[in-house]
């Protein structure tokens, strides 16, 4: 089976589901944001603060290029990686792209209380979530599989991904 590439907005479960999926498949989980943090020696929030979003997006594309050469892994991406078509093409060349979704209020409930989401450090995070989701929706739909995670456990979503990926591999 090809790599499984998890895309989706922040708070849709990419990392949590990625861990479960990797365990079920006996694969390693590669988290793009974690790999960028390791390579840069700083947190994503620091990269945004000191170098800006555009520079971070360049780092994301570079990392997508490196990771796309791996095989038999589960890849958890950052929420904005889909904004560059080049990234999706790189990740799709050896992978099945799965977009995880959830309603804005579900996302807000899942991520509220943290300050590690630089794009949501605004007075009305829920409004920003809605705005970003609306803008990114066409990019997120550029996926092979789309799964709503709102009312499902991580294991249920992981099993659904495995079944869908098997059907695609036939």
Q: What topology does this entry show?
A:
Elements: E1 3-8, H1 14-25, E2 28-31, H2 32-40, H3 44-67, E3 73-76, H4 85-92, E4 95-101, H5 104-111, H6 125-140, E5 145-148, H7 154-169
Parallel strand pairs: 1-3, 1-4, 2-3, 4-5
Helix pairs in contact: 1-7, 2-3, 3-4, 5-6
- Number of helical elements: 7
Q: What proportion of the residues form beta strands (DSSP E)? A: 5-15%
Supply the CATH architecture: 3-Layer(aba) Sandwich
End-to-end separation in angstroms reads 10 Å
Total beta strands? 5
Count of individual domains: 1
Strand order of the largest sheet: 2-3-1-4-5
Name of the CATH first level: Alpha Beta
CATH superfamily: P-loop containing nucleotide triphosphate hydrolases
Low-pLDDT runs of 5+ residues are: none
Query: H/E series, N to C?
Result: EHEHHEHEHHEH
Structure description:
The chain is α/β, with parallel strands linked by helices. It has a single domain (3-169), classed as P-loop containing nucleotide triphosphate hydrolases (Rossmann fold, 3-Layer(aba) Sandwich). The protein has 7 helices and 5 strands; from the N terminus they run E-H-E-H-H-E-H-E-H-H-E-H. The chain has a 5-stranded parallel β-sheet with strand order 2-3-1-4-5, with helices on both faces. Helix 2 (32-40) packs across helix 3. The longest helix has 24 residues, at 44-67. The mean pLDDT is 92.
Describe this protein with a few key phrases.
five-stranded parallel sheet; globular; 15% strand; Rossmann fold; 170 residues
């Amino acid at each position: 089976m090809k790599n499984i590439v998890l895309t989706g907005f922040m708070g849709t479960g990419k990392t949590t589901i990625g861990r479960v999926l990797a365990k079920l498949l006996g694969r390693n989980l590669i988290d793009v944001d974690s790999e960028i943090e390791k390579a840069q020696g700083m947190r994503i929030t620091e990269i945004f603060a000191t170098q800006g979003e555009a520079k971070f997006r360049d780092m994301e594309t570079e990392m997508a290029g490196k990771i796309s050469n791996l095989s038999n892994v589960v890849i958890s991406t950052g929420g904005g990686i889909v904004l560059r078509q080049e990234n999706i093409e790189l990740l799709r060349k050896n992978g099945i792209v799965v977009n995880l979704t959830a309603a804005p209020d579900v996302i807000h409930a899942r991520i509220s209380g943290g300050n590690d989401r630089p794009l949501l450090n605004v007075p009305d995070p829920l409004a920003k979530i809605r705005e970003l989701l609306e803008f990114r929706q066409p990019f997120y739909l550029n996926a092979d599989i789309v799964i709503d995670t709102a009312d499902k456990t991580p294991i249920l979503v992981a099993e659904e991904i495995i079944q869908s990926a098997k059907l695609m591999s036939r």
